[in-house]
Each structure stands twice: as structure tokens, then as C-alpha cells.
Amino acid sequence: MKNVTQYLGAIAVAASLTGCASVPPPTEELALSRAAVANAVSAGAREFAAPDLSAAEDKVAKADQMMSAKNYEAALWLAEQAHADADVAAARARSGKAQKALFAAQEDSRVLREEINRKSK
Q: Quick check: pTM over 0.90?
């Protein structure tokens, strides 16, 4: 039984080392993250979701550093996180723009009602 446990332990260690070494450079995910950041910027994230956008940009920069250091596992993780942060920033920007448009429409409606009421008196 002890030999089986040692054997399984050795296999687990070998598998984990092989798993870490086999992570390829995440160039595609990093490119997708950059595209997501650009999408967030064009959606208005600098105005409406600056903290989320900043987090995404920081993670892309750190992923680039990890790529240079050939730490592909960390680079992949950071790129995925950056993509998620950028998607959140884009969604918040779209929401912020919609809310701003709603407030403007409500204000226009209020002004119009006041004008109608004033003319009908």
C-alpha cells in the first residue's frame, strides 16, 4: 500500500510539473484582451467606468511583463482577468451612457410639459 501511495504521489508531482511546463504563450488571449480594452474605451469607459478600465489596462501590462519573463501561466491568468475587467468596463460604460440619455430625455419631457402647461393657461 505504501508503494502505491508513493507511486501515485510521484505521478501527481510529474503531472503537475508537466502541466505547468506545457502552458503555451497566451498570445491569442492577450490579443483578445487588448481588443476588449479597446472596445471598452470606444464604449466610453474612460468617462463611465474608469476604475474597471484602469484595472484591465494594468492587467494587460502585467501580462506583457509575464510574457517577457516566459511565465505563461501567469500571463494567461492576467490576460483572462483583463478581458473580464474590460468587458465589465464596457458594460458599465454602455449603462452609464443609457442612463445619461434617459436623464436627458426626462428633462426634455419635463421642460416640454412646463411649456404646454404655460401655453394652456
A: no
